[in-house]
Write a structure and sequence with these properties.
Elements (H helix, E strand, L loop, with lengths): L11 E2 L7 E2 L2 H15 L3 E8 L10 E6 L4 E6 L1 H6 L9 E11 L4 E8 L1
Length: about 120
């Protein structure tokens, strides 16, 4: 994906504003998601577990990873939770492997964790 967002994706030219593209929300988020997923198909992230309140009814774990200056929401789906040798708990320092994704419905980026 190039850095020129005016000529990429589903943006359409704004009426009466030559050269200016206007995006609808969903195509813009989809373009960001595709960019994240192709740029970061697999990565390790190190941080402190926060916002973890236990494993949900479907077996998924929702939490965040933080460092001194930022916070990244994360999800670990049930199959990976069951295989994990690490028990998540707030304050735990971890290295998480996964991929970046953007949840289009909320517009939030998250790390989809496959192992700790």
């Amino acid at each position: 994906m190039s850095g020129d967002w005016t000529s990429h994706g589903d943006g359409r030219e704004a009426e009466g504003m030559p050269g200016i593209r206007v995006w609808q929300v969903t195509p813009l988020l989809r373009t960001f998601r595709q960019h994240f997923e192709s740029t970061f198909p697999s990565l390790w992230v190190e941080g402190e577990v926060t916002d973890f309140h236990g494993i949900g009814a479907r077996g998924h774990a929702y939490f965040s990873l933080k460092d001194a200056e930022g916070t990244l929401p994360a999800v670990m789906f049930s199959g990976n939770v069951a295989r994990s040798r690490v028990s998540l708990k707030p304050g735990l320092q971890v290295r998480a492997h996964g991929k970046l994704s953007l949840f289009e419905k909320s517009g939030k980026m998250q790390l989809v964790v496959d192992r700790l």
